Amino acid sequence: MADARKTMIAVVGAGKCSKKLRDMASQVGKYVAEHGGVIVCGGLGGIMEGAARGAKEAGGVTIGILPGDNKEDANEYIDYVIPTGFGEARNIMVVRTADAVVAFPGKYGTLSEMAFALHAGKPLVAINAWKLGDEIEQANDPIEAAKRAMELAEKGK
Questions:
Q1: According to the model, what pLDDT value does residue 53 have?
Q2: What CATH number corresponds to the domain at position 73?
Q3: Which residues constitute the domain of residue 114?
Q4: DSSP state of 35
Q5: What's the number of domains the chain is made of?
Q6: What pLDDT score does 69 carry?
Q7: How confident is the model at residue 3 (pLDDT cuts 50, 70, 90)?
Q8: Distance in angstroms (rounded) separating the CA atoms of residues 11 and 113
């Protein structure tokens, strides 16, 4: 019997980024939501906010796994706020919750999430993020990345 649970796509990247990158993340969130998936992210600003905004605008569901213990820190587009109090250790929870990961440019937090995804055998699609080897699929645009992440997630379920 096929897994009837919704596909969960983690979107990771910089907490502070350009409007262009935030809008690209929004396109990923929108695509995932339009295709029945759920966005999971770190729940804060930048790439995370963009992905959650896109999902919400498309009528989708969002989960934010926060590093702190204050629910109010979540961006306005997060439906389910999970305050961990774990700091950067929450990155592993973001990745482990997802069926696949889309990575945008970011710093060491993004690098750790990408490494956790590789270690856990989670499909990983990158858009101009860290280049870590052949195990990471590279995408040229957000729609391509979202589509491929959904395909890989469904295949792995």
A1: 98
A2: 3.40.50.450
A3: 8-152
A4: T
A5: 1
A6: 97
A7: low
A8: 10
Query: CA 54: distance to chain centroid?
Result: 12
- CB-based contacts of 136-142 (< 8 A; 24+ apart in sequence): 136/103, 139/102, 141/24, 142/24, 142/25, 142/27, 142/28, 142/31
**In degrees rounded to 5, what are phi and psi of residue 142?**
-65, -35
Check: CB of residue 90 under 8 Å from CB of residue 96: no
Q: Is residue 37 part of a domain?
A: yes
Handedness of CA 8, 10, 16, 19 (dihedral sign): negative
Helix (H, G, I), strand (E, B) or coil at 10: strand
Half-sphere exposure of 77 (CA within 13 A, CB side): 29
Residue 2 counted as domain residue: no
Asked whether residue 157 is domain-assigned, the answer is no
